[in-house]
Amino acid sequence: MASFLGDLSVTSSDDDEVSEWFVDIQEETADDRMLKRFVMILKAGDPTATELMLVQLTDLDWTNKRSQKLFLDTGGLQVLVNLLNLDEENCLIGSLRLLGKLCHSIHMCQAIVDLGGLRYMVENLDSGVHLIQVLAAETISKVLQFNRAREMFWKYGGIDKLVKLLKCFCSTEENPMKDVELDHNVIALLWNLSKSLKTKKAICEAGIIPLLGHLVRSPHENIRIAVMKLLQEFASEEICKSAIQTKDLMRNIIKNLQTNNEELQLCCATSIFKFVDNKETCDLVRKIQGLQALVSLLGKAENKKLLTAVTGAIWKCSASTKNVAFFQKCNTLETLVALLNAPQSDYVLFHITKALIEFVQTPENRAAVLQPEILKLIMDLPLESYEVDWALSANVAKLLGACAIDEESVATMEQFNVIHRMCVHLKFSDEDLQASSAWTLSSFLKNIKGSAGKIRNRVRFLLLIADLLKSSNNCSNIEVQASICCLVSELIKDEYNLGGLSHLGLVSSLAKLTDTNDDKVRRYVAKAIGLSCHFEQNIAAFGEAGVTVPLVNFLKESKDTSVHHYSAMALSELCGEQDNIIDMHKAGALKPLIECMKSDDEDLQMFAADCAEKIRLLVQKAEKIRKAMK
User: Which are the contacts of 598, defined by CB distance < 8 A and separation ≥ 6?
Assistant: First the structure.
């Protein structure tokens, strides 16, 4: 989710390559001549005249690129930089104010850095004059529009100076009113610095989080807003994230969430969205009464940015079953569903569907979502979402899959042609959408009688599945590989589908997928191989394709009982061909099979015993033949 920073700082750029600054100033104008005279007076060095000229220059329109270029070419910018290194207080203040005006152009920012102005401004942060500190922090924040400037600021010791200033602010119980502007400028400057990964890490290591934890209790809302926006920038830094997830800081975030300032509420909801990423933090938000505040903010649906942040925070907090139970008491599901009736951004829809996926893990919420009017709302969500790159459609597929846990639920959803929609999703190139749709289809085929048979007449669908199975061999996405294998294992329970896919290269595609170290893929590819052996020709074909040894290795290498179950099942089916039994024996299958016979899984015991018996009989037969030949 984007961080809505408002006007806390100028737009920053991570690209240090700036287009050439071309301004044609061959024909001199009256304004040009006036600007040149002002620069000449500045160069003269008289303190009183310099002060007056700085005031005059500050009042000019510096959005004009021609004026900026002329001021630079005539040496005016160099004079301003030199003034930063003088003890003339009024001249220094005037220079900082004018530099702040010039910083609207990134070309001028680069020139200031190149002329050494950034170093002098960093030194001015230690000034004993409050106004100089305020202006220095504000101007530096405007200068740091590119990574080179941020890193130079760090090298000049600027980060340590900012942390030192914040420590001074936090050392007194009440921050004087005169320091509010400096507080804000320092925090804005830190926010700008956090756009660079290197400087962000340096800020974290300087111990900024405890100081921000103090400032988030400031009596001034603009300071709390700035602090909350800065905190969000550290969501990607684990060392800072763990510090932010403490009870005291989260409590202050919730306290600010309960104010009437919508900008502050937005910042706090966004922070919850970014920092709640585990069950412990989810439960912490509930314990400090954060869930009530989030639910109440759903009533401010007209504020779209706030709604995006709040729905995102509710989704993240739904990872805890206790939180879902709380949301259920507050009728949150009904409120979220009602929001689907109104036009919403893709991000709001994305967050709502994510939350619903967590909600339907409980029977009561699942029954509510399966109501025809709600199912229709969900099915009417767009097939594709360009803004969030198919993610919304993937969420819909996951939500339907989470509901498809029994025959009754699937029968209800089947009225809305879910199978057709999931088949359409499989045609798209997005891997998350493919995997989500395949898992959902698998649940449908598993939980409704005769559903696999309904697909037998869809020749195009079987061709699509065959193509997906082949393409998954070249796909590194584990979920895609596992979900397609799972879908195939459900489809081939119908003998016509099994025959059709076998003729479309089922054996070779599954054989290639056995080259994996992932237990999830191992489980479903072994299951699909075992079920494929019900088509008799496939038994020998699998042996020729070399699947026997990988299946034995699954037993040896994996600690997952379900992998053992389906691998033993597949090996048991492959024993229908003597050459496969020989391959099992050579691969050392007997020892892992004996271990599987000790399992609590009765089916696994049976599969393993069957394989072991057939290997034993083959060994005995070979021994008899060997003795007879002697």
Answer: 605
The answer to whether the beta carbons of residues 162 and 186 sit under 8 Å apart is yes
The alpha carbon dihedral of 497, 498, 503, 506 has a sign of: positive
Q: With both helix axes pointing from N to C terminus, report the angle between 407-414 and 431-447 in degrees, rounded to the nearest 10.
A: 120
Closest CA to 497 of 462, 543, 549: 462
Give per-residue pLDDT as tens, 512-551: 999 999 999 999 999 999 999 999 999 999 999 999 999 9
Residue 205: CB partners within 8 Å, gap ≥ 6? 239
Output phi, psi for 299, to 5 deg.
-70, -15
Report the pLDDT value the prediction gives residue 3, as an integer from 0 to 100.
35
What's the Cα-to-Cα distance from 564 to each of 487, 552, 570, rounded to whole Å? 20, 9, 10
SS3 129: coil
| Exposure class string for 214-236: b at 16+ Cβ within 10 A, else e | bbbebeeebbbbbbbbbbbbbbe
Residue 534 is given by DSSP the state T
Q: Report the top-level CATH class of 1-13+29-204.
A: mainly alpha
Of 502, 603, 573, 512, the residue nearest 584 (C-alpha): 573
Domain boundaries, the chain: 1-13+29-204
pLDDT for residue 8 is more than 50: no
User: What burial letters (b/e) apply to 590-612, b meaning 16+ CB within 10 Å?
Assistant: bebbeebbebeeeebeebbbbbb
CA 345 to chain centre: 18
The pair of three-digit structure tokens given for residue 135, joined into one six-digit string: 């202006």
Q: What is the DSSP string of 53-72?
A: HHHHHHTS-TT-HHHHHHHH
Tokens of 351: 């967050």
Residue 129 tokens read as: 């004059």
pLDDT digits (tens, 9 = 90+) for 231-282: 888 877 676 667 777 778 888 889 989 999 999 999 999 999 998 888 888 9
pLDDT in tens, 185-203: 888 888 888 887 788 888 8
Residue the block writes with tokens 């040894």: 549
589-624 pLDDT, tens per residue? 999 999 999 999 999 999 999 999 998 888 888 777
Nearest of 409, 318, 326, 393 to residue 356 by alpha carbon: 318
Q: Using an 8 Å Cβ cutoff, are 111 and 144 in contact?
A: no
pLDDT in tens, 422-441: 888 888 888 899 999 999 99
pTM of the model as a whole:
0.82
Print the SS3 string covering 364-379.
HHHHHHCCHHHHHHHH
CB 42 within 8 A of CB 79: yes
Rounded CA gap, 275 and 241, in Å? 7
**Average pLDDT taken over every residue of the chain:** 85
